[in-house]
Design goal:
Helices cover 36% and strands 27% of the residues. By secondary structure, it is an alpha+beta fold. The strands form 2 sheets. A 4-stranded antiparallel β-sheet has the order 4-5-3-6, covered by helices on one side. Strand 1 (8-9) and strand 2 (14-15) form a beta hairpin. It holds the Pfam family Y1_Tnp.
Length: 138
């Protein structure tokens, strides 16, 4: 099979699954400077590697970060998110004592909620039309 950009292969599947993830800080406090965001990206890239997930893009501001990930079908997005947020929070707390003030109450850096949106592929109308066209005549 010819290699197609963005398409990955596993043992028993070929896939192109992308998600846009957004994590906000607790109470949307402006926490991050550029050096914090640089370290958050490094930590999150490491976590993604552990999950066999590709971190395609990363960016952020003082109160939130955006990630574009390419993940295999064996990875539950909720588990990936929990690890990304948990590991990054723990590492930042250890490495940046100046952030301790933002860890008050339950010692959390991130809000408990997050955004996850599917990305890429054809519009649903095109997929429906394709699936419909696959019916064999009766």
């Amino acid at each position: 099979m010819a290699e197609i950009e963005g398409v990955r292969t596993g043992r028993h599947c070929v896939f192109a699954l992308h998600a846009h993830l957004v994590f906000g800080t607790k109470y949307r406090h402006p926490v991050f400077t550029d050096r914090h965001l640089t370290r958050v990206e490094q930590v999150m890239r490491s976590v993604c590697e552990d999950f066999a997930v590709e971190l395609v893009e990363f960016n952020g501001e003082s109160d939130h970060v955006h990630l574009l990930v390419n993940f295999p079908p064996t990875v539950a997005v909720s588990r990936l998110v929990n690890s990304l947020k948990g590991v990054s929070s723990r590492r930042l707390r250890q490495e940046f004592p100046d952030l301790i003030d933002h860890y008050w109450r339950a010692r959390r850096l991130w809000s408990g909620s997050y955004f996850a949106g599917s990305v890429g592929g054809a519009p649903l109308s095109v997929v429906r039309q394709y699936i419909d066209s696959q019916r064999s005549p009766a």
